[in-house]
Specification:
37% strand; alpha+beta; seven-stranded antiparallel beta sheet; PH-domain like; 7 strands
């Protein structure tokens, strides 16, 4: 199966880049993330790929890995997680490492923030 390369936004630790030179390559035998240098990960190095948000709001993935000599890695592209997952499948990589979109902003976060905002607004600006 052929390697599949996507261009997009890459973050490696505190280093960030976007454009055609910043890539995510899915191969049968691992992943390669390029952000000013190549970060090659074998399937046994990858714990999971976490979407950066819930459902359709997710634009990219955090690559949770066990390599101590690599920083935290993140990749996003137009097409979002669906495009990344399609690239993994097309390259023959184990797409089962893609975790469900449970990380990021959850609906209860929004509800709790709204309630706190209303409570504090009423407390500070409400009439006695």
């Amino acid at each position: 199966m052929p390697d599949v390369t996507l261009s997009g936004k890459v973050r490696a630790g505190f280093v960030y880049g976007s454009g055609k030179r910043f890539t995510f390559t899915a191969r049968r035998d691992g992943l390669v993330v390029h952000c000013f240098r190549d970060y090659e990960l074998l399937p046994e190095d990858i714990v999971r790929l976490e979407p950066d948000g819930p459902g359709i709001l997710a634009r990219g993935v955090r690559i949770v890995h066990t390599r101590r000599d690599y920083p935290s890695l993140y990749f996003s592209c137009s097409g979002g997680v669906e495009r990344i997952e399609a690239a993994l499948v097309e390259a023959g990589f184990d797409a089962g490492k893609l975790a469900p979109g449970q990380s990021g902003l959850q609906p209860w976060h929004v509800a709790a923030a709204l309630l706190a905002f209303l409570f504090l607004g009423n407390l500070l600006f409400g009439r006695p």
